[in-house]
Design goal:
This protein is mostly beta strands. It has 3 helices and 12 strands. Strand 9 (112-124) and strand 10 form a beta hairpin. The longest helix is centred in the first third of the chain and has 9 residues, at 3-11.
């Protein structure tokens, strides 16, 4: 199979935009991803794929804590900042960040925040696939869901489309 056809096909699919945030060795880390999905409800488990070249991949250790922030359509700017390695110094400069009891950052007013513990990690080609045990969830009071989504190389949201 040709990679171009696979890539073209995957770009047609719509994905939620998330920021994975963590603390490792006293450093705050955040990365924008569109590769998060639920694995099971019992026990609550998520799956995330992280490129081996990212600093977040080095922080993925079994038992480590991280937060999965499912972004709202109003959080595009933060998604862009956390997606750009050249803007790493700006990632925590906004007032959108709060901290849980372990000091791990999370994004305020996300559609949902899942507070997780890394349960298992599988290396697969260029990525680490982490299975995350969900410890608790925050659901802010929202009138109407408006998740930030990614399709065909662009952000979209349900309200605009």
């Amino acid at each position: 199979m040709r990679n171009e056809k696979f890539i073209a096909g995957m770009r047609r699919i719509t994905y939620p935009v998330c920021i994975i945030s963590a603390r490792a060795n006293g450093k705050k880390l955040a990365i924008t991803v569109s590769s998060v999905t639920s694995v099971s409800v019992e026990p609550p488990t998520l799956l995330v794929c992280i490129n081996n070249l990212s600093s977040m991949a080095k922080a993925l250790l079994r038992g480590s804590l991280l937060n999965v922030n499912f972004l709202s359509s109003k959080q595009r700017t933060l998604a862009d900042i956390c997606a750009d390695k050249n803007k790493a110094g700006m990632r925590f400069s906004s007032d959108e960040w709060l901290y849980d009891s372990s000091g791990t950052p999370y994004v305020d007013q996300s559609e949902m925040v899942a507070f997780c513990e890394v349960d298992n990690i599988v290396s697969q080609t260029s990525h680490k696939v982490a299975f995350l045990r969900v410890l608790t969830v925050i659901l802010p009071p929202l009138e109407k869901p408006s998740p930030l989504l990614y399709q065909n190389g662009s952000y979209i949201n349900l309200i605009e489309n």
